[in-house]
Model the fold of this input.
Amino acid sequence: MTQPTELSSWKELTTHHHDMRDFSLREELDKSDRLDTLSIIFEDMMFDFSKHLITKDTTDLLISLAQASGIEKMRDQMFSGAPINNTENRSVLHVACRAPKSASIMVNGENVIPFIHQVLEQMEKFSNSVRAGIHTGYTGHPITDVVNIGIGGSDLGPRYVVEALQDFCDGPKVHFVSNVDGSDINATLKNLDPSTTIFIIASKTFTTEETMLNAQVAKDWFLKFAPQDAIEKHFVALSTNLDAVRKFGISEENMFPFRDWVGGRYSLWSAIGLSITLAVGFERFRELLDGARAMDEHFLSAPLNKNIPVLMGLLGIWYRNFYGYPTHLLLPYDRRLGKMAKFTQQMDMESNGKAIDRDGHHVDYATGPVIFGEPGTDSQHSFMQLVHQSPTPIPADVILCKNPAHDLHQNHISLMANCLAQTRALAIGQTLEEAGGDPSRIFTGNRPSTTIILPQLDPFHLGALIAAYEHKVFVQGIVWNLNSFDQPGVELGKILAKPIRKMIEERTIEEDMDCSTKALAEFLIK
Done:
């Protein structure tokens, strides 16, 4: 395939970027029609792209780049079930998990939609039974706590959603354990009652080291209080490895399967979302799926120049490759979205943090940015100083909810005012004259941001928001000619950990180990 840097639209964008050196957001934002042409209303959500370093020529050239990169063709292939994960020869079908029953998506001759809805029905039945007090613990008491044991996408996705939807959590309290650091699971277990706790073991292969270590700790803890046959009532598996699940002691009816065409960082829509259904109820989980499906349909049908994920992705390309900005900030003005940056870090950086393209060649251009962020207004008193005045600008997405879930009116007015003030300050800056002649208070402005306003933080709009970022990552991966759906960097670390673990356990040093790692291991075992 042609390298993106060889495309005529890429070369034209390079020239255009040079021509944009005198562009001023301060001047552009005085034009009344700018918001009309650079904002999109979708399902009562507003996506405002007006505070970006772009003109109509910029968007036209970026759209040409998207078309030349084959965005539309690859998008349609993903939704149809084609194996676009070329290194693992797999389909990429997290989108199928939110498709309606009437859909048909074929993978190796099988329509996968009936399987998906069969699992959804299993999740609905189980979560309804637990939440209604029908499925009880081994002593007959209702379940009060759920511990989700996973790592990566099996943890971050559900954890993000449950925290974001905390105002809808009316089921058992859901806890999350991911870190192999024993203090994580110890801190969780010490306040729980084994007779009223369910453990969800989330591991596709049921062999993930961190997850299975923590699962064994949970099992050993549980069996200090309960008989062996009580495991069936208190442990469930999100997996495809039936033999390993049975060996652990979990009954087949408490195994919730998913297929290898659902990648971990895109898996909250699948059986991995069981903890979400237990926390908020299956109907709200369905609304989450509906919101994501609405964004899927928009991504499939909207013209590229009015397509939210396409524009989000292309703007990221514009700043990463033409301005050379290495970082991207997620700044939610909502405490409930506190895990947004962490969740999106994995989705984005694990997908596109790569130097080898789909054809096996080393790339000679920048790929995935560093993603970071924390909620405002706290962030205004920490890293926002750098965001405003660092010599290297940081593009930002700022997220706000129009209607809060509380009645503290003045608090919300202050929150909204601070949010809009930050994006305005980033865009227009402050001149020496406006700073009263104090050069330390000069702000250059011209720091780009997207403002996303949700009507309220509910399951539907959260689902749409997450899906928008999923498709943004997809768009960037296609332009960069990457496979966004494998993770060789994760696998390498696991491979290298095995001989090191053996050294530490057996208190012996491998002679062919590098001198630094050898010295560190010696220090640990002596």
